């Protein structure tokens, strides 16, 4: 009986448009900050979120009834279009209670903030934490958390079948095309696959978030900060109600907890194996995880040794505790920006002084561009594409030394270093073109070269905290022009979906298949 009821519920979900399901989930989530505001006796904020949530549920219900029984005509590509709508259109609705509760800013600023949150960019439109009330901080973190969950599910259910989002490096088909062919049966299966993956991954995602929050509270963190940081670390959004880890009360223990859970953004094998490529089903054999660990170990170590080389020249003795703090600050911050989370360790300033680098923002920009693993909430170019280019480069160097040599790579690695490397290089070029286009557009609005570069990389790699710390002076988004804010919103959406997915959406031949 229970199994039959579950099948009926899944059948109902399959008949509903995907965008309505996402809209309904975000509408219901508005009651969380509404309840929290009610507990704090902030009745105006509570009413704003309560009424907006009710309005969303009513509209979703009415549209669902009107469209009942109409199946989707576009299969997985239609779901990809829904994903674009989620990041571009849904923030208009999400910004309504935020704007109504804040009252002291324009609607464009709140829309920008919601786009930043739902794309897990985490760019701060209101850098002063006291500007927002506690329920608004919770709402920003919750939107970022749900946006990360949407991307987590979409990567396996939508991007993987279309050979997008990094999967094109190892897939046998062309980006944007389903390998097994197309047909009406597959379109039905695509919705069923989406539901199955959502049912499987959502409890894992929520359970890990609860574990992080409990551990942070046990280490002495305030309840709201612990919950927001837990949601931010799983979504790699970097959203914080206290201005980052500098305002945290958990100290080194809290950083260690966050550091441990940031490893989930380096490889999909840390939480799931449903999208694992053949031959890479173990975490210790996964090239993404191994490259990520190599970067996390090597970059801080080089910064650390750079100081020691200078200390030897002047024969100075250093305090061991200070040295360990500097090393930890480097390791934590490197992993944080590699995962595109953007949390800065409280000891990062010490690491900067030890390295002697006047412009450490260049290192953070490079780490954010590399990004995390495929099918994770991290942004950036992705470690799998970096690995494909590394294999191809190694093979080309071997051919220079031994022109008649035959590659000794295994079947999967041979596929990556040839066709996969070509596709990865194409993506790098598209990323560079996107970066140049956004830079030129921002420069046309009056931004300097340094500001345009930092803003473009922060948006396209979904690493918003770069805006605060990558340049010599923090960039105040709220003071930028309307045109610049609109450009950054578009860049964040492109960075979250990636350029190949946008090209797939605007290619008519793919819709006719």
From TrEMBL:
Domain of life: Bacteria
Protein keywords: Cell membrane, Ion transport, Membrane, Transmembrane, Transmembrane helix, Transport
Protein name: TrkH family potassium uptake protein
Subcellular location: Cell membrane
Pfam families: TrkH
DNA-binding among keywords: no
Naturally occurring in which organism (per UniProt): Ruegeria aquimaris
Topology of the protein relative to the lipid bilayer: Multi-pass membrane protein
Cleaved signal peptide residues: none
Residues spanning the membrane: 12-32, 48-68, 80-98, 142-167, 194-218, 252-271, 291-308, 320-343, 363-390, 422-446, 482-511
InterPro entries in the record: Cat_transpt (IPR003445)
